[in-house]
Amino acid sequence: MKLRWCRNCNVPLISDRCESCGELGLEVPISRTSDPRPAWESDLKLLREVLEKEYGAGCYADLLRNGDSVVLFGRAPYMDTSYEVISDGAVLGHLFFDLFSFSWKFKPSEAGAVRIEHRMEKINRVADKGEVVGEAKEGDPDFKLTLNGIACKIGNKYVITRVFKGRKAIDVKQDRKLLFEANEREIGLKGSRASLFIYRMWRKHGKLVVSFSGGKDSAVILDLAEKSGCDYIVYFNDTGIEMPETVEQSKKADIVGSAGDSFWRYVPKFGPPARDYRWCCKVLKLVPTYKALKGVTKMTLVGQRRFESLDRMRSKKVWMNDWLPGILTAAPINEWTALDAWLYVMSRKVEVNKLYFMGFERIGCYLCPSARISDFLKVKEIHPELWKRWEDFLFSTGWSENQVKYGLWRWIDVPKRFRIFGEGRKRIELSEASKIPRERLMNLAKTSSPEDPAVMIRASFCAGCGVCSTYCDAIEIRNGLAFITDRCNSCGLCNRLCPLLLHH
């Protein structure tokens, strides 16, 4: 994605040219996964604390010397949370949560280093990227400035990690009002196009359902649907592991689907949800949603955006979700950036979840395996009782202090770079067929054969979650287990749907 900045007005642009002064925007070199959004008061408070702890009192004012009314945070690749701090038309540095020290740190970029160079220790030599330029001792700063770049402390050495290219930031006083003046027409155009798209979908498919998650993007969709003049209802799905602030948003919904206590009933059998084992999405989201919306609508509107993640980058604007048979899904703001969405929210005064202003970038289940350690620490700070329940479960089922601290439960196959913190979970060992009750095995074998590993796994570990019975009327839940009736035609759909088989 691209980010442009007006040199004259010193504000980011969501189109090529500034609507306030007519200046062609300067392209800011950002990470391709960045998707910048406004930095809120809690973000700036964190940045100030980190800067002044690492570089001394007054460093925040030195770095943001034109003011802090127009500062963006953009995602950057890292093991945990990392933000590109963008202001004055440049990336001034990276604010990141360091898993090794379990603390936030700030690494200045070239533009940032120019502004705080008098606060940084120096190594008076020119060196290439990757070159060792000095010894590092305990207590030495994490970063030092060389004559042509920045050296990072890695073990007991200082290594050049960035070579300067002559980039500088803009020196023009910031004015928050210009942020809206410079982008107002484009915000309006994007909103009008999205509303027209929604209207056309309504004319084609009839009554629409706005799938409202409690996040900013679905709040934008709800506002656009209202402005479109179409006939719609609002649906909210309560997974049972949402934060109270998100559940509060459900008051906007006409229909509330609920997974109840499904998570806590099934997690002892399935184990913690993982990035490569997302049983939670099937059991807590898709099944309740299908049950609630089956026969209600032919199309749902979601606040999905392609810039949210690399996976969604390939997503279409309209598609059929295999888990919602007969229901199309449409993403009216699929091409919007986070900045587009936030400018719409701020300029149209759309009510959004207050968790955003408490340091959360994305809204979802509080123990989602896709979240970062820094997110979990915020949950622990704001809602300690929620996090304690999750930690108590992990400790009671054999997870070690280190595995819990570093979130190693978030994977079945722990990535190599995280293995320095410990090992992940043990894989489920498939019981031998002779240890599975024959009656149970033969009942599930109707779907395939007794030798099929999928049948053996289901026969051994079925949790009775109801995913299979939701999508197939030949299956019933009896005595807490899936039971295959004589209506089964051996299509094998249930074996493809079962959450147990996601990673086996």
Provide a descriptive summary of the structure in words.
The chain is of the alpha+beta class. It has helices at 41-55, 59-63, 110-116, 176-181, 184-205, 216-228, 244-248, 262-270, 279-293, 310-313, 338-348, 373-382, 384-396, 401-405, 438-444, 453-461, 467-471, 493-497, and strands spanning 3-6, 11-13, 26-28, 37-38, 72-75, 82-87, 90-98, 103-108, 122-123, 132-135, 143-146, 149-154, 157-163, 208-211, 232-238, 255-258, 299-301, 318-320, 328-330, 475-478, 481-484. Strands 16-15-14-17-19-18 form a six-stranded mixed beta sheet, with helices on both faces. A five-stranded antiparallel beta sheet has the order 4-5-6-7-8. The protein has a five-stranded mixed beta sheet with strand order 9-11-12-13-10, with no helix packed on it. The model has no long low-confidence stretch (mean pLDDT 95).
Mean residue pLDDT: 95
Uncertain runs are: none
Radius of gyration: 26 Å
The percentage helix is 25-40%
In percent terms, what proportion of residues is strand?
15-25%
Number of strand segments:
21
Q: How can the largest sheet be summarized?
A: 6 strands, mixed
Strand order of the largest sheet: 16-15-14-17-19-18
Structural class: alpha+beta
Give a topology summary.
Layout: E1 3-6, E2 11-13, E3 26-28, E4 37-38, H1 41-55, H2 59-63, E5 72-75, E6 82-87, E7 90-98, E8 103-108, H3 110-116, E9 122-123, E10 132-135, E11 143-146, E12 149-154, E13 157-163, H4 176-181, H5 184-205, E14 208-211, H6 216-228, E15 232-238, H7 244-248, E16 255-258, H8 262-270, H9 279-293, E17 299-301, H10 310-313, E18 318-320, E19 328-330, H11 338-348, H12 373-382, H13 384-396, H14 401-405, H15 438-444, H16 453-461, H17 467-471, E20 475-478, E21 481-484, H18 493-497
Parallel strand pairs: 9-11, 14-15, 14-17, 15-16, 17-19
Antiparallel strand pairs: 1-2, 1-3, 4-5, 5-6, 6-7, 7-8, 10-13, 11-12, 12-13, 18-19, 20-21
Helix pairs in contact: 5-6, 5-11, 6-11, 12-13
